[in-house]
């Protein structure tokens, strides 16, 4: 017999017993009390039997409040959209003639950065543009010119011409570092030429690496981003721009990516001043995982600031970092000459140092600095003129040492030596390879402090003086 049937039978029996006893002229009060207790006990057993199947999950009792701390269910986004949509612009370009023939047109989105007419969009929207037109939500149209652009971050800065004295509706920029997965966001743009289309969703992930460049640090969102949305703003629920919509996945549905606005903030002064990304350089080799300094290049900005091997870099200009890539992104987006504040941990003590960044050497120079041709004291990277190298450059094999890189602000750079020069003499002694340069330098120069270098540059030979 099932437990539920047994329980029901016992209850019926108890009730029948009590009723029969009362009909016969009354029942001892003690027996009546025991019968009632038995009935309550049996009812509890029935409840426990039925609840046993629900032990795999829990349900909120109707009397309990369903409110979740700090959560406010969204209702309408209309007030937010009305407040920000005037700053979103439509961008149309007439592009340079392609190899296939004929000039093409393209369209994208952007947003007004400053009331006097600076506009942010994607680099790929304007990279080939011969002319650019920007349309505002109120119907006004302006021609625009490129102030600066960078392919590695896909960010471009435009300036509208003929704005006049009336200020334009500019956006507020937010803090993309404070975004959390699950935060609500709104994308506004011109997908497929449909002006000021709005989509909303949430932050799906942060720091997505798509394999595009070292600066990959995308915000992933499920707010719909389609062709034509490129360069448009991604707003948070405060009406602040937290990203620049830039990429979609052709094989995915409802997956879009945006450049974090904090990265854009670091880049914008560089674009405005230089027109392109002039990358800053500290002169450090850093542990990939924990941003611990492994090596400091001599005469580099880091060396001049007193940074040492073993220091851990905690923050750049107050922004926390915990890996080599984060440090590289922060520093490389800043222009050479920028005064930068680093927060270090040295021997258990936090300290701050000011560093004036130099221009980042070419990748091949940085790679060569770690090789056998590195003349660190002088800021030179040299390579033997082997028969293969010499023939490709039109030189005689082992007729000198080829300069393949020069460290910024080094004695070699200050002396005027450039990549491509061939060093043929050191302190008036002939040299035929890198080993010869090293050996002659080790011999000294008769008590003088300067190093006299003879270089061949094309068909011309000249003497240059380095001060170590």
UniProtKB/TrEMBL annotation:
Transmembrane segments: none annotated. Residues 276-348, 365-458 form the PDZ domain. The keyword Protease applies. Gene3D superfamilies: 2.30.42.10, 2.40.10.120. InterPro entries: PDZ (IPR001478), PDZ_6 (IPR041489), PDZ_sf (IPR036034), Peptidase_S1_PA (IPR009003), Peptidase_S1C (IPR001940). Keywords: Hydrolase, Protease, Signal. One of its GO terms (molecular function) is serine-type endopeptidase activity. Residues 1-23 form the signal peptide. GO terms for biological process: proteolysis. Belongs to the peptidase S1C family. This is Serine protease Do. It comes from Stigmatella erecta.
């Amino acid at each position: 017999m099932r437990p539920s049937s047994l329980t029901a039978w016992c209850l019926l029996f108890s009730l029948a017993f009590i009723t029969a006893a009362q009909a016969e002229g009354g029942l001892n009060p003690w027996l009546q009390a025991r019968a009632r207790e038995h009935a309550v006990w049996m009812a509890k057993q029935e409840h426990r039997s039925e609840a046993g199947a629900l032990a795999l999950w829990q349900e909120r009792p109707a009397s309990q409040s369903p409110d979740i701390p700090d959560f406010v269910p969204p209702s309408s986004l209309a007030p937010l959209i009305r407040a920000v949509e005037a700053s979103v612009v439509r961008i149309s370009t007439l592009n340079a003639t392609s190899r296939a023939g004929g000039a093409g047109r393209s369209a994208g989105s952007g947003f007004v950065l400053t009331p006097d007419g600076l506009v942010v969009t994607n680099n790929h929207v304007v990279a080939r543009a011969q002319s650019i037109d920007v349309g505002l939500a109120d119907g006004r149209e302006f021609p625009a010119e490129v102030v600066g652009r960078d392919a590695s971050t896909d960010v471009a800065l435009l300036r509208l011409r003929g704005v006049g004295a009336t200020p334009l509706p500019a956006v507020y920029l937010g803090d993309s570092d404070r975004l959390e997965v699950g935060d609500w966001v709104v994308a506004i743009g011109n997908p497929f030429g449909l002006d000021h289309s709005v989509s909303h969703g949430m932050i799906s992930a942060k720091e997505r690496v798509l394999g595009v460049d070292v600066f990959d640090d995308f915000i992933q969102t499920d707010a719909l981003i389609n062709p034509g949305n490129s360069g448009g703003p991604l707003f948070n629920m405060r009406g602040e721009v937290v990203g620049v919509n830039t990429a979609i996945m052709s094989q995915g549905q409802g997956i879009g990516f945006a450049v974090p606005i904090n990265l854009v903030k670091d880049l914008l002064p560089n674009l405005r001043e230089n027109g392109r990304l002039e990358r800053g350089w500290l002169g450090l080799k850093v542990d990939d995982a924990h941003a611990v300094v492994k090596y400091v290049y001599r005469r580099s900005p880091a060396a001049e600031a007193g940074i040492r091997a073993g220091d851990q870099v905690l923050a750049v200009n107050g922004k926390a970092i915990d890996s080599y890539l984060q440090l590289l992104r922060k520093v490389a987006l800043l222009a050479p000459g920028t005064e930068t504040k680093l927060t270090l941990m040295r021997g258990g003590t936090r300290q701050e140092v000011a560093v004036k960044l130099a221009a980042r050497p070419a990748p091949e120079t940085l790679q060569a600095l770690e090789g056998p041709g590195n003349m660190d004291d002088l800021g030179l990277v040299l390579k033997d003129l082997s028969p293969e190298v010499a023939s490709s450059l039109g030189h005689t094999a082992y007729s000198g040492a080829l300069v393949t890189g020069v460290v910024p602000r080094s004695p070699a750079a200050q002396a005027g030596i450039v990549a491509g020069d061939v060093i043929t003499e050191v302190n008036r002694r002939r040299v035929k390879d890198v080993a010869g340069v090293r050996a002659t330098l080790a011999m000294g120069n008769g008590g003088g402090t300067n190093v006299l270098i003879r270089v061949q540059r094309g068909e011309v030979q000249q003497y240059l003086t380095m001060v170590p």
